[in-house]
Amino acid sequence: MTTTADLTAARGAPFTAHGGMRFSVDAWDPSYGTSVAGDDLADSSARVEVNIEVRAAAWGPVAVPAARSRVVTAPAAVLFVDGVRRVEARAWIHDLAPDGEAATSAAPAICASYAAGVVCCCEQGAHLLGAHVRRGLFTAATHAGDLFTGGGRYRAKPAKEGPDGPTLSLQQELLELEVRTATRARGAHELVQTVDDDDERPAGAGGLGAGADGPPWPDQRGAAGPAGQAGDLLVVDGPLRGRTRLPRALGFVKTHHTQFLPAAQHAVVGRLGPAQRTPVFLLNNRRDANWDRLSWYLRLPSRPGAPWAGVARVECRADLSPDEAVALADLSQVVLPRFASQEFKDGRAPQNLYPIAGLERALRRRLGDPRLLYRSLRRAAAA
Question: Which phi and psi angles does 3 have, rounded to 5°?
Fold first, then answer.
């Protein structure tokens, strides 16, 4: 007879039931969905080139650099970039009408708060480099103006026509805010790194506690990163879409909805061990060259479970040379597993890296109380 303790011990690990059936329990909190869409991953329309690092026939799990006698220097700092958004209210912008007459039609709109920030993990610990909050009124109505409420000012932002126009505009504004925040924070961090005083910290730095569980950060101030560039690495939560111009940047994709690789190479992902990765491959979009990426799959340390448990997809700019992309892939094996979360601390472990989880909490606190903001919008509409 299987007891509750037996099932608890098997959480996230394969379990053999009567009749020889094996199954595993996904470690992700069910409220977040799943990290993998299952066996029905949608086929990608992108052209995939798998002969970047090794020939297609030679594909197999790539061991950590040390096991391949490759020396990889950890960067002096890892900067994690993320953004959050929240729709405070859905609204309608009434069409213009003569004085004294009511409008007969209106354009949809959303009132939203959004924020972007950067957390730095270095020898000083984990600290916030920058966090910026914005509020916007997103609509296709050309006569819409800024909305002033007791909860703040919602700046009018143009959106395309259609029901999804305001939401797409909000997402684009958030991406641009993330780029500006990351560029500004990286510049401030590089300036601080040149100061000789070991006690110098970026303005407004404060501990997030996200990296407190890992080993002490090695003293490598000024160490060279990939291709001998400055000693930091930028990790963006999610794809690099709209952020490819950021130098020394990796996109970190936690969930999987699309099968990019051919069947033989796709099977390699399920054979990855902790901190192992696939060879680098190229994703090419025939319709949009700006979408192209160099990518690889990486398994973070996690309990044994389903074939894709703990797997994330990492990507970088497509205009890098194969050697530069492989160097970044090796660097990701050294850097990212250190920040993998654990089940008892995060419902999306291990892919929701500790610094990203801490940054998300810090940004959401800065958005304000949604109930107060909603009431302030209702009062403004009534006035």
Answer: -95, 170
